[in-house]
Amino acid sequence: MDQFTSPFQRAQTIVKYLKNELNEDERNELEAWVSANEENRKLFEQFKNENKLQEELKFFESINIQDAWQKITAQTEGRAKVVTLQAKMRRWWYAAAAVVILMVGSLVVYRLSVSGPVSTEITKESGTKRFKNDVLPGGDKAVLTLADGSTIILDDAQNGALAQQGATKVIKLGGKLAYDPANTGTKEVVYNTIATPRGGQYQIELPDGSQVWLNAASSLRFPTVFVGKERRVEITGEAYFEVAKNKAMPFIVSVNGAEVQVLGTHFNVMAYNDEAAVKTTLLEGSVQFVSGNNKSLLKPGQQSQLSKEGGVKVVSGVDVEEVMAWKNGNFSFEGSDIETVMRQVSRWYNVEVVYNKKTDELFYAEMPRNTKLSDVLKALELTGKVRFDIEGQKIIVM
Question: Where do transmembrane segments lie in this chain (predicted)?
Fold first, then answer.
């Protein structure tokens, strides 16, 4: 059984070993892990082999090593000194930097989270024939449907005023859509819908100043002016909300027959049809999740999960950074199975995923969403547990 509680802890201990900074307890833990099985021993030997590390560093040429090192030292209470990688740096520092890159770089898979060494043949082949039909990442793409049913393709539209909806002016500001209601007595309520395609995302500022970010393959239906006793919108897919405070007019999100009720707060709702549950994650403030007779009051760091069967449970201690990775421009997987990983990849790159064979391995990875599809697949292949082909708009998992 693994002596370490997380892949990060393993990497942290190996870095300290390479710097000769282990205390007795840490050394005993490392020795126990190395001797636990032959795969652990072989993997550890790779990190002791400077030539091997130099080979693998070439794969990460585009990564800013100093930034990567800053990320990891931020989690080690600042005990390590941040420096720039140079040709004349000491051997242990070079090796430590290599581990850092493998663990927290911009294109990284936590290879210590799975058993077995990396297949160098896979990574060599990855950059040639199999990935010749590469796919670019998604971007700011959406279609706006106005009250009369007419549509505006936002990625093609010029910045500035797009339409007038009742007393509200619709404005495009780069990758953001804004609604500016006039200060008149006119309270004509009409509805608009903004929808992102697979491979798209968009931000919108609602008439009350609330901010909404839509993930790929998502939609938001909303009134062009809020009147009455509540502010009600409806979503499909995934959206992150920063709701403007208004105690007199609660904000309500309708999703899959359920409701998220708030006054002013930050939260994320994930409600894709191909996911096992509707997940509402609270970052700041408080929200009440209501489904039938089930009511759940959430605190920051908690997540309500509504299953397809109608059951509701609340989970505490949720990894908020993982939940919000998409909004911050990243993929983040903390022990995710291959199907969970590939659902996110499929939506963002607008590709179909076909499985020749599935793996039971769990993936620990963090990488930017603004990179080509081949870079994401190459990083995942570093585990040595999965292999991909790209055929047009189709990914084959082997």
Answer: 92-112
Residues 100 and 226 in one domain: no
- Residue 200's DSSP bridge partners are 139
Indicate the residue among 81, 116, 151 that finishes a domain: 116
DSSP for residue 344: H
In this model, does residue 88 exceed pLDDT 50? no
Residue ranges of the alpha helices (H) in 178-335? 320-323
Q: Using one digit for the tens of pLDDT, what is the confidence trace for 1-12? A: 455 555 556 666
Residues 57 and 177 in one domain: no
Separation CA 271–CA 238 (nearest Å) = 6
DSSP 60: T
- When computed from its CA atoms, the radius of gyration of the chain, rounded to whole angstroms, is 24
Token couple for 392: 């047009």
Q: Are strands 294-298 and 287-291 parallel, antiparallel or unpaired?
A: antiparallel
Tens of pLDDT, residue by residue over 298-354, are 999 999 999 988 889 999 999 999 999 999 999 988 888 999 999 999 999 999 999
Burial class of residue 385, CB neighbours in 10 A (0-12, 13-18, 19+): buried
3-state secondary structure of 85: coil
Cβ–Cβ < 8 Å for 113, 103: no
Domain carrying residue 366: 330-397
Residues with Cβ < 8 Å from 77, sequence gap 6 or more?
none
Q: Are residues 272 and 290 in the same domain?
A: yes
CATH code at 278?
2.60.120.1440
Considering its fold, how many domains does the chain have in total? Answer: 3
> Residues 384, 316: one domain?
no
Report how far Cα 85 is from the mean position of its chain's Cα atoms.
28
Report which residue type is found at 290.
V
Strand-pair partners of 336: 363
